[in-house]
Amino acid sequence: MISVLIPTINAAPTIERLLKSLRTQIVPHRVYIVDSSSTDNTVELADKYDVKIVTIKAEQFDHGATRNMIARLAEGDFLVFMTQDVVCADQYTLHNLVKPLEENADVAVSFARQLPQADADAIETFARNFNYPEASILKSASDIPKLGIKTYFCSNSCAAYRRNVFEKLGGFSEGVVTNEDMLFAAGAIKAGYGIYYAAEAKVYHSHTYTLGRLFKRYYRIGKFLKDNARSLDVADKHGHEFIKAGLRYFSKKKQYWNVLRFIAQSFIKFAAFKLGYVAGVISG
């Protein structure tokens, strides 16, 4: 049995698209929603579907703790975590996501390929295609020398967890401001399990960030990496590849405005990341 677990808050613009796409899936599953006291009609919209809804106070939300809570309520051998703003790309998303777990007992987590949504801008489209390529890959401890910290990359926007391993390893770390999925993946790999990127399991998921939101996001990532340096004790071997690839991509297409935008966004990400990292040093 597959349980699909979705944290929500003010998800009215997106939740029905997600739930409708889940209805088309070829494998049996049960949907659980934990809503952080939405002030719009998220709960009313979700209640039209065959889902289990639990409500918590908005201030109680925690990336790790909230997901751990709803995992305890759910049934089944496989826990699929999704965010409120994804949409299954076809009827095989859950089937292809869980398949690596069914076929290989050493795989702890399988995460989906994220495709840009129709309204994604050029930079976000490039980022999704760069970070989520067409080829699947099984990552293990042996890949750390080659991939560095990307060995631990995983996304709870759409990811399936083997329940017994999830419980054995204590679930998600609680009190983290972001990247609870990466922390779990690092622990799973260190415990001898594999992390599978299932490119055949596809969802639509992308964002158009303002510069302010982009700064806030990468500030949090920088602080997170410093706060969890002992758990994520490997280098980023590919950080510059994204920038080089983006500059080549937009220059080749002669999209010089996007070249400038890409440079500006990259600078903001770098500055925010470094400030967050320094904040982590000070607070630590």
Q: In sequence order, what are the helices and strands, one letter per element?
A: EHEHEHEEHEHEHEHHEHHH
Overall 3D form: globular
How widely separated are the two ends? 42 Å
Tell how many strands the DSSP assignment holds. Answer: 9
Number of helices: 11
User: What is the share of helical residues?
Assistant: 40-55%
Question: Which class do the helix and strand fractions yield?
Answer: alpha/beta
Unreliable parts: none
Looking at the overall shape, the CATH architecture of the largest domain is Alpha-Beta Complex
Describe the biggest sheet? 9 strands, mixed
What is the CATH class designation of the largest domain? Alpha Beta
User: What value does the Rg take, in angstroms?
Assistant: 19 Å
When the domains are counted, the total is 2
Q: Which strand-content bin applies to the residues? A: 15-25%
Please describe the structure with a list of short key phrases separated by commas or semicolons:
284 residues; 2 domains; 9 strands; 11 helices; 44% helix; alpha/beta; Spore Coat Polysaccharide Biosynthesis Protein SpsA, Chain A
Description:
The protein is of the alpha/beta class and 284 residues long. The protein folds into 2 domains: 2-204, Spore Coat Polysaccharide Biosynthesis Protein SpsA, Chain A, CATH 3.90.550.10; 211-283. Helices cover 44% and strands 19% of the residues. The protein is built from 11 helices and 9 strands. It has helices at 15-23, 42-46, 63-73, 93-103, 122-131, 144-147, 163-168, 180-190, 211-227, 239-252, 256-283; strands spanning 2-8, 29-35, 51-55, 78-82, 87-88, 107-115, 137-139, 158-162, 194-204. Strands 1, 2, 3, 4, 5, 6, 7, 8 and 9 form a 9-stranded mixed β-sheet that branches. Helix 5 packs across helix 10 and helix 10 runs antiparallel to helix 11. It is globular and about 50 Å long. The chain starts with a strand and ends with a helix. The relative contact order is 0.14. The model has no long low-confidence stretch (mean pLDDT 94).
